[in-house]
Amino acid sequence: MISLLNGRSSSSSAARRGRRALVASAVVLCGAAGLSGCGKTIQIGDDPASPPSSAAPQTPQASAPAPGPGNSALQVVDSTAQDAGLSGNGGTVIGAAVQEAPPKWVQLSAVNSPSLASPNLININQAALYRFDKDTAAPSKSNCNDACAAKWPPVTIQEGGNVYLAGVDPQQIGAIRRDDGQVQVTVGGWPVYRFAGDTRPGDLNGQGVDGVWFAVGPDGAKAAQ
């Protein structure tokens, strides 16, 4: 039996309305555009190590908090953007180009690079992604801002956007709000970045820079050399 918000039995018509609401919620969680796979729903500031949000309908609870203003959930999808019928790059840019607006969606893919002994992540433009030793993963916090962020652009996303994955565990993905208000994707708790000095697919010019920047693996760890 479906438990309604007030915790009491209701008429059959109210129960039907409750079931319709639950079905609608499930559609939103799994993606309204016919996505081929569901991952998890995260709020901005989620710890990726926390239990996943379920895409299955749940019994409503009166105490369940609604997302606060400006904290729209992101959907982590355990399939590629192409599988979801999308083409293009979601609005991401390449190299030193300035990301004027957050992308509508991003894709993180694990690949094997000749110069690395373990898999590393790239985005949909095949740009290598990095982590910064001066950031923190627990709690997730970026310490790369202003001039640093111009050289190492954060992997940002629109609020309410989708993160598509290839070879990455959805449970490793989270999101934080940066000091400038933008939403940045995290992997294994670590905020992830591009490098402005990478201009071609396969470039790893940021690897080891200043002894604090390293290609990031699919679990957020440094990709081994």
Can you offer a commentary on this structure?
11% of the residues lie in helices and 20% in strands. The chain is α+β, with helices and mostly antiparallel strands and 225 residues long. It has a 5-stranded mixed sheet with strand order 1-2-9-3-4, with no helix packed on it. Strands 8, 10, 11 and 12 form a 4-stranded antiparallel sheet that branches. Strands 5-13 form a two-stranded antiparallel ribbon. A hairpin with a 2-residue loop joins strand 6 and strand 7 (140-141). The radius of gyration is 19 Å and the shape is globular. Mean pLDDT is 80; it is low at 1-36 and 51-70.
What are the salient characteristics of this protein?
225 residues, alpha+beta, 5-stranded mixed beta sheet, 4-stranded antiparallel beta sheet, 13 strands, 20% strand, globular, disordered N terminus
Per DSSP E runs of 2 or more residues, the count of β-strands stands at 13
Instruction: Point out poorly predicted stretches.
Output: 1-36, 51-70
Number of helices: 2
Strand order of the largest sheet: 1-2-9-3-4
User: What is the arithmetic mean of pLDDT?
Assistant: 80
